[in-house]
Design a protein that fits this description.
Blueprint lengths: L7 E2 L2 H4 L7 E3 L2 H8 L20 H9 L3 H9 L5 H7 L27 H15 L2 H4 L12 E5 L3 H11 L4 E6 L7 H4 L8 H10 L6 E4 L9 H7 L2 E4 L5 E2 L12 E3 H10 L17 E5 L3 H16 L5 E6 L10 H10 L2 E4 L1 E8 L5 E14 L5 E5 L5 E4 L2 E4 L3 E2 L33 E3 L2 H4 L4 H18 L4
Parallel strand pairs: 3-4, 3-6, 4-5, 6-18, 8-16, 9-10, 9-16, 10-11
Antiparallel strand pairs: 1-2, 7-17, 12-13, 13-14, 13-15
Helix pairs in contact: 3-4, 3-6, 4-6, 5-6, 8-16, 12-13, 13-14
Amino acid sequence: MKKIVKPKELPVHGRVHNFDEVVTGYTEEEMLEEALRCIQCKNPTCISGCPVGIDIKKFIYQLTQKDYLGAYKTIYEKNRFPLICGRVCPAEYQCRKTCVFTPKKLPFASENAINIPLLERFAGDYAKEHISNKQILNYVQHQKRNAYKVACIGSGPASLTVAGELSRYGIKVDIYEGLHSLGGVLSYGIPTFRLPREVLYYEINLLKNYGVEFYTGVIVGRSISFQELRKKYNFVFIGTGAGAPVWLNIKGENLINIYSANEYLTRVNLMRADKFPEYHTPVNTASNIVVIGGGNTAMDAARVALRIQKINKINGTVTVLYRRTEEEMPARRVEIEHAKEEGVEFNFLVQPVEFIGNDTGKVKAIKCLKCTLGEPDETGRRKPVPVSGTEFLVPTDLVIVAIGLKANQTLTDTVKELKVNRWGDVEVNPDTMETSIENVYAGGDIVGGEGTIIEAMGMGKKAAESILRKLAII
């Protein structure tokens, strides 16, 4: 069996000084070589790993036949955002994990699993370069406009998917976004070296072709009430995400130079703090930065912090502290490898227990305990167990806490009849995504907690289908 074709990447020594996209994608020759590795299984298990149900077998075959626009159409029928998903979808835990080339016992995809997202990205990039926005309108059949209207709260992947699905059936969709830029976590959470903004906004703007309208700077629950939206629209979809940071709740967490990853990444990704003072939002940097966490957000924060150091000509270190081992890290394997290549250091089996400050109120060290791994917890990963008497100090002058996000309750706190669980997530019927309020649906991180982009899209798709069934359109 031929080995996977690895895509080209920017050289490490240059990319850490800028925010240019690291993975440059396949050339046509490389794409064909990788696509031809697919054995076109009779029962393609990879499709079961895709939350939006792309016919992976079909589009890969079309690529091998050099029917690139046909492949794009096959993808686009199920997923309106192939350029985004081809770049940031955690496929090693989804479609690649269910590829026949991945042994079932592995917790993530084997190195030989077909590189499905890079093939999807090729089809999306090809379409972007070779067909106009208006031509893409013809790639999915659309019905004439009817009288139904839907409001989506938040412009993240779940809401964008709802808009894409409903607009093809003639339903008018308006999206309300509290920030000044569209995309939700795609915009404020993911660095441009993973998802260039021209790619993100290209796919969002395609929705405008179908009559989707966007309203930025509108905080539902503050700028406009939820009740007003319900009167104005036939259905409402809540996709406000998980925008509130989770903290360690240990002594000293209020010291200067301790950021949540959410704030740190928003300052850079959305408000361009990397170009301060050209842009007006600053972000602190330092010579000894520590990132706490092991997920994709932690990897993004560490790699961003490293670049901020380099841009500011600071010789220093960026170190990730994680309570488990590398094997248990939920971050994408490729992001961990990129972080290592770029110089991020890792300290495993470590649990912070206290932040220590200097006489000016700034963090100067983290008191930690060493850990061992116990029995598996509810996530299936072995639980970290702190070892008493193993205290040690980790020197630092800037900390980024990246241990998770929780529900943004700005809206839900104003809607008392909306049922939420003890974490503040909106409760839904899992079969329809309908909430406790009739004709109000929800999806994405506001429902399931912090998850993946494609999982949010899957929820949005399910909600849209439920609305269409209720209207007897499908």
